Amino acid sequence: MSGNPCWRRQERFGTNVKEQILRLFKEANGQFVSGEALSEALGCSRTAIWKHISELRAQGYQFEAVRRSGYRLLATPDIPYAEQVKAGLNTQRLGCETHFFETVESTQTEIHALARAGAPEGTVVIADEQVKGKGRLGRSWHSPPGSGIWMSVLLRPKLELQRCPQLTLVAAVAIVETIREQTGLPLMIKWPNDLLLNGKKVCGILTELRAESDCVDYIALGIGINVSSASFPSELADIATSLSIEQQGQAPLRTPLIKRLLEKLEELYFLYVEQGFSAIKPRWEAHALMLGKPITARRVNSATLQGIAIGIDEQGALLLRMEDGRTEHIYSADIDMG
Ligand code: BTX
């Protein structure tokens, strides 16, 4: 795939006024911007500008204010605003259209709405907080403000329906490789959609699709990563962890992590589209947690099975060697070790 990375293309102003203000400061490159220039560029009163700057300060942005000169941006906190994520992003499609929300029910709900309205492949929705974050099978995903990457990516692959679960595995490889590269933490993949550190869940992937007859219309790929969470509610305390907990309080910054993840995800997605799942499978297996181990697979509306996990097939289904020597193909299940 070739062409200009999307950050080099002409970009529209974001819809969020604070993002527009930040963009003007970025363009000013550390110089003062007057309140008058800001209010003219954004078409709002100087009082409104002052209010937005106060809100940005409350979020951790540091401004110097000098009479008759205006404002100068001194320091930026780690909030993955769309403009911040797109700046310097080296992708052809993923993230070219990015939407940031401070609070949202679920980034999946937003990406579905954008997809139905015709948004292009690669559109990304990021939230600082989700109040109804979704897991699989109607479960919830704990997504408090400022502590994680809560993100959905819109894909429109030309794929047969039965191959779509492979995209969860492609995403898992992209996340593991990115986090290992950025932090050195040895994430492992627990089939099909969990990423674990020291046996606890640090990341979940939710792949939802809309199809008409046998054709995929779009895929909403939801990614949740616990980045700087210092603790979890009691019901999650024994099963969840964060990058920060695993690094003695050192959390990587979310914005560069999101950028690198989008770049890696695009690289692997293009590889998958061009060469098929066989190009991804060995990379998945290199990080798989339970290969060769005894496991229990709890399936919805089917019997629970016990056996040895021996690999995945070309569809991405888990292969389970049963006691009688047969091999079962598991397409959807919750897995427990042992
Ligand atoms: P899952 O069904 O495999 O996992 C959900 C289960 O994981 C919950 O029932 C709970 O036990 C546990 N859990 C909940 N929150 C957390 C957490 N923060 N860390 C660790 N364990 C947790 C996994 O589904 C798929 C999750 C995808 C989340 C992303 S976030 C962006 C996008 N938007 C959205 O609403 N969902 C996705």
State the gist of this model:
It is an enzyme of class 6 (ligase). This protein has 338 residues and is α+β, with helices and mostly antiparallel strands.
Could you explain the architecture of this structure?
The structure is a single chain. By secondary structure, this protein is an alpha+beta fold. It has three domains: 5-75, Arc Repressor Mutant, subunit A; 82-286, BirA Bifunctional Protein, domain 2; 294-337, Roll (SH3 type barrels), CATH 2.30.30. The protein is built from ten helices and 14 strands. The protein has a seven-stranded mixed sheet with strand order 3-4-5-9-8-7-6, sandwiched between helices. A hairpin with a 5-residue loop joins strand 12 (318-321) and strand 13 (327-330). Ligand BTX binds next to helix 5, strand 5, strand 8 and strand 9. Belongs to the biotin--protein ligase family. It comes from Ammoniphilus oxalaticus. InterPro entries: aa-tRNA-synth_II/BPL/LPL, Bifunct_BirA, Biotin_CoA_COase_ligase, BPL_C, BPL_LPL_catalytic, HTH_11, Transcriptional_repressor_C, WH-like_DNA-bd_sf.
